[in-house]
Amino acid sequence: MQPTFYDGTLQELFTERGPSAKLIPPYYQTNIHLHGGSSGGPVFNFDGEVFGVASCSYDGAEDVAFVTPAAALLEIDVPERIGEGEAGAQHVKLKDIAARGQLSVR
Q: What is the mean pLDDT of each run of 10 residues along the chain (106 residues)?
């Protein structure tokens, strides 16, 4: 498999409410032309660092895509142990895993 890179720029940051009903703020609107299957991929800054994740685009729209800032991902709750997706399993935020040194964040 060969990675594909798409150029684009940030156009607007939505901290309260924005045009995407699928996303919870904060998120960015970009002019990146995402293709099917690109959601979840890393979005890099000019220094080559991941600052966000490609979240979604509009069906049929070109050059409109949304990016979730990487910092917002640290608030996601995940099971404490792999394989414990059942109700009642202990959960922890990704930022807590990073604080333990089990996840690298800059």
A: 81 89 88 82 88 82 86 85 70 89 77
The count of other CB atoms within 10 Å of the CB of residue 97 is 15
* Contacts of 59 by beta carbon, 8 Å cutoff, 6+ apart: none
Residue 26's nearest CA partner among 52, 65, 48 is 52
Q: In terms of C-beta distances under 8 Å and separation of at least 24 residues, what long-range contacts does 15-19 make, across chains too?
A: 18/66
pTM of the model: 0.72
Sorted by sequence, the CB contacts under 8 Å of residue 5 that are 6+ apart come out as none
Q: What is the pLDDT of residue 34?
A: 79
What DSSP letter does each residue of 10-58 carry, written as one string? Answer: EEEEESS--S-SS-PSSEEEE-----TT-TT-EEE-TTS-EEEEEEEE-
| Structural domains of the chain, ranges and CATH numbers in brackets | 10-71 (2.40.10.10), 74-106 (no CATH)
